[in-house]
């Protein structure tokens, strides 16, 4: 089977970046990955959430400038945590011939997790970029949520141990993501 990756950038919008843990660092990681994907001819697909506080056309709804979709790049509008639900993401990926999703974005426990699991259920291989997803800022003892760093580490570890028969699941730091096709053995 041919290996065809796509970089998926989930919900990296102005309003969400304003509440994101280590937003600047995560944006920089994704921007570097995006540049590498483009240089390798790998499709970049941006997912943009629509809903309360993220109304189309508002400042908060727009993707952060560092990750604004380029000409010819696909933008998927969604209204739930699942980037596949009632969207054309799957059709877009199939049209591009994509077999593996390299997943980045916001928020780790919600949209990133849900979309990554749905990708596996839809027969895509998965790379979760360990330093390319983030969650909201919260203080220790801020309700029942795990602290941001603990949540990121937890999700990275969970995905390292998921088992989806017939699927490749890797959790890699951005520096180890290779967009080149695998070498023949």
From TrEMBL:
Keyword annotations: Hydrolase
Pfam family, one: Isochorismatase
InterPro entries associated with the record: Isochorismatase-like_dom, Isochorismatase-like_hydrls, Isochorismatase-like_sf
Listed SUPFAM superfamilies: Isochorismatase-like hydrolases (SSF52499)
GO molecular function terms listed in the Swiss-Prot or TrEMBL record: hydrolase activity
Domain Isochorismatase-like per the UniProt entry, residue ranges: 6-139
Record keyword Hydrolase present: yes
Protein name as annotated: Isochorismatase hydrolase
Organism of this sequence: Streptomyces laurentii
Lineage summary: Bacteria, Bacillati, Actinomycetota, Actinomycetes, Kitasatosporales
